[in-house]
Design a protein that fits this description.
By secondary structure, the chain is of the alpha+beta class. The protein has two domains: 10-100, no CATH class; 109-202, no CATH class. Helix content is 37%, strand content 26%. It is elongated. The structure holds zinc ion (2 copies).
């Protein structure tokens, strides 16, 4: 994956499709509809969940001979680059970004967790959207510094002290740490609240 042809920034994405298509592709990506992403040298393959969850669209992105992007997608939208292709490109960019970050590999677990605590404090905004401080659902929005894309994930807090919380982000799904910067951001925020001290006093 040394070839960065499929790594599109916001500006380059803007040359591919209409603003509306890009917006739809982005929301597909945020909703975690892209799976089975497979990057090869001149080809990017993915499945993208459409309106019917049991019938994902297969999308194939190719690097043309003249260095242009070619798209084959099941949706036959008639557009040269459809929202499924855009969603796949966002997903690829995220994967590439995670690799560049050097997280996980070569780090001890403590270092990896410390990194997420730091990022949670600096890069993530949180908002309680359901339940309460110690047991609730939060929206965590993170800023990707290199590209400034805002991403929102849902954090489900089950405990403010034990590692039994859940987040919809791909990092938590793959890092085996039991936490991610979104969860750490919520914990950091929650533990500063006056309600937290009351909660602790009750226990
Ligand atoms: Zn499509
Ligand atoms: Zn997360």
């Amino acid at each position: 994956m040394s070839d960065d042809f499929f790594l599109f920034d916001t500006e380059r994405l803007g040359t591919l499709a209409s603003e509306d298509t890009i917006k739809k592709g982005l929301s597909y990506f945020i909703e975690n509809r892209v799976f089975a992403l497979d990057a090869q040298e001149n080809m990017l393959l993915a499945q993208v969940e459409g309106s019917k969850p049991d019938q994902p669209y297969w999308v194939e992105l190719l690097r043309g001979e003249d260095g242009q992007l070619l798209v084959n997608c099941d949706c036959a939208s008639g557009r040269p680059v459809c929202k499924h292709a855009i969603a796949a490109l966002y997903s690829y960019a995220e994967q590439a970004g995670n690799q560049d970050g050097g997280e996980g590999i070569g780090n001890t677990m403590e270092e990896a967790i410390a990194e997420r605590i730091k990022k949670g404090r600096n890069e993530v905004k949180v908002k309680l959207i359901g339940g309460n401080l110690g047991f609730g659902i939060w929206q965590a929005t993170s800023l990707v510094s290199a590209t400034h894309w805002q991403r929102s994930y849902q954090v489900h807090i089950r405990s403010l002290d034990a590692r039994m919380n859940y987040c919809t982000c791909p990092d938590l799904a793959s890092n085996r740490l039991g936490t991610c910067k979104h969860i750490e951001a919520v914990l950091h925020y929650a533990k500063k609240r006056p309600e937290y001290k009351k909660l602790k006093a009750k226990v």
